[in-house]
Task: inverse folding
């Protein structure tokens, strides 16, 4: 594209606010299409996923899993009695790798001639952006890719609690931690802290964990997590958090006696970052949770302002933000037909211990949508767990359309379930049937072979 020749009246063809998964992809690809691009990032280039989300979280999950592997190793003949865990070593290695990734993302943008402003940006006019330093610039298009921020409930003393942002930087591990929430972050960090030997308590406002996942895998996670020592309380809210003179906090939950904990963490959802962004100055419409409202091409009600990623509160996942950023760049600067992201059948995973992975409809959703469904189950103890004496069963569940056998959902809880699900999701997205799976020869001995052997 040759937008630079078409728009000499603006400083840039595109100004992206937010250097996370969506903003970086959109900026890099727009620049590759020939646009003159600038990007503002108020914290660190790479955004939530790279700096304080998926990537460092997954490294902690790996680190935590050694606790079980080292224990299980004894049944395989290894002596591991003298093994010790040092939190600071893991924390610092993870933070060093985050630094490395941040440099990589910055370099990629610079190699594509994207100008980076390492400061907060706000919209101050239809095409005008003002940087924290006071500098004002103009752009033909503005992309809002500001992500989301942890929601902090408003009980007395809520400011004593940490969010996932701080969890990566702790000076020491808490002996006892109370985690509010029952979603992705609560379950992932409960698994991490529990494996490191902390006494973990999950407190959920509602009556179920991970409500968007299939009931069978959710129940299995609750059962295994309880067996591993994580404590759960449902239908409970926080009344207060008060600091204790000798360190830690007094915590009062509804219907419970006051108790002591070393740390309280809130993981109760994330709210779109639109506060004070100046979207009102440009007439951009927001939804009731502050999310930027967009059409299927990620365009707001204002023709030259687009939004991608968590700030639109469609699906808060990195690969979705990246796809939306790519589609935006191709639509606006690619010179071809507009590209919309298909938000159906998105696979996802919870990196709990063990992890959950899922694609498509749950059994309940399928029954509501289709009426007649056929469900196949495989409930098994992985070979490695049998030898290790680990009493943890895995569960695979396949939901098919009762009329034509088309697979409409697969749900798993098993070691490496997310790795297996990525491949299975291709088949579900492509509309394959149970017969197609049955026609595929198993790879033996694997856990994944259960996918083609289900009855
Ligand atoms: C603990 C945790 C674990 C997660 N794990 C996973 C996972 O395993 N898999 C997965 O798919 N997803 C995961 N996610 C979700 C994933 O991180 C997000 O969906 C993804 O990062 C969204 O990308 P984004 O570009 O929309 O926003 P972000 O990556 O949040 O980027 C937005 C950027 O905008 C910047 N910004 C905001 N306002 C301004 C402003 N006014 N001026 C300048 N800069 C601004 C912010 O500093 C931020 O860097 C996790 C999230 C968390 C919190
Ligand atoms: N593996 C992954 O892909 C991954 C990992 C982490 C985060 N994420 C993304 O980040 C988003 C945010 O994660 P999250 O775990 O914060 O939110 P979530 O929406 O997954 O879960 C929020 C949970 O908090 C509970 N809750 C709400 N208010 C509460 C209160 N006052 N007290 C106690 N419980 C309360 C809800 O019932 C719900 O169970 C996710 O929706 C997901 O899109 C993805």
Result:
């Amino acid at each position: 594209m040759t937008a630079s020749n078409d728009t000499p009246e603006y400083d840039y063809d595109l100004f992206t606010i937010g250097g996370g998964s969506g903003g970086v992809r959109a900026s890099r690809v727009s620049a590759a299409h020939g646009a003159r691009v600038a990007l503002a990032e108020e914290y660190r280039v790479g955004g939530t996923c790279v700096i304080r989300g998926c990537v460092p979280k997954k490294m902690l999950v790996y680190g935590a899993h050694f606790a079980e592997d080292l224990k299980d190793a004894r049944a395989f003949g290894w002596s591991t009695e003298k093994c010790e865990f040092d939190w600071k070593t893991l924390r610092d290695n993870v933070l060093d790798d985050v630094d490395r990734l941040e440099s990589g993302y910055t370099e990629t943008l610079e190699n594509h001639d994207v100008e980076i402003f390492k400061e907060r940006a706000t919209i101050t006019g239809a095409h005008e952006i003002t940087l924290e330093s006071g500098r004002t610039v103009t752009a033909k298009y503005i992309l809002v890719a500001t992500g989301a921020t942890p929601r902090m409930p408003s009980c007395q003393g809520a400011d004593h609690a940490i969010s996932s942002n701080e969890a990566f930087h702790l000076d020491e591990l808490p002996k006892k931690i109370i985690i509010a929430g029952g979603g992705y972050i609560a379950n992932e960090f409960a698994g991490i802290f529990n494996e490191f030997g902390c006494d973990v308590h999950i407190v959920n406002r509602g009556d179920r964990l991970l409500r968007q996942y299939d009931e069978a895998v959710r129940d299995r996670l609750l059962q295994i997590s309880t067996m591993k020592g994580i404590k759960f309380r449902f239908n409970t809210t926080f009344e207060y958090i008060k600091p204790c003179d000798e360190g830690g906090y007094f915590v009062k939950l509804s219907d419970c006696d006051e108790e002591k904990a070393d740390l309280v963490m809130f993981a109760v959802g994330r709210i779109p970052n639109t506060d004070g962004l100046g979207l009102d100055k440009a007439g951009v419409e927001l939804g009731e949770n502050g999310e930027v409202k967009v059409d299927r091409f990620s365009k707001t009600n204002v023709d030259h302002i687009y939004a991608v990623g968590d700030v639109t509160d469609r699906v808060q996942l990195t690969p979705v933000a990246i796809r939306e950023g790519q589609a935006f760049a191709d639509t606006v600067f690619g010179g071809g037909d507009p590209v919309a992201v298909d938000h159906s059948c998105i696979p996802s995973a919870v990196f709990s211990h063990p992890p959950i992975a899922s694609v498509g409809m749950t059994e309940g959703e399928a029954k509501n949508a289709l009426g007649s469904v056929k469900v196949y189950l495989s409930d098994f103890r992985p070979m490695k767990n049998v030898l290790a004496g680990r009493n943890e069963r895995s569960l695979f569940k396949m939901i098919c359309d009762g009329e034509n056998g088309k697979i409409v959902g697969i749900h798993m809880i098993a070691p490496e379930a997310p790795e297996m699900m990525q491949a299975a999701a291709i088949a579900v997205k492509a509309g394959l049937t149970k017969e197609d799976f049955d026609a595929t020869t198993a790879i033996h001995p694997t856990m994944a072979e259960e996918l083609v052997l289900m009855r």
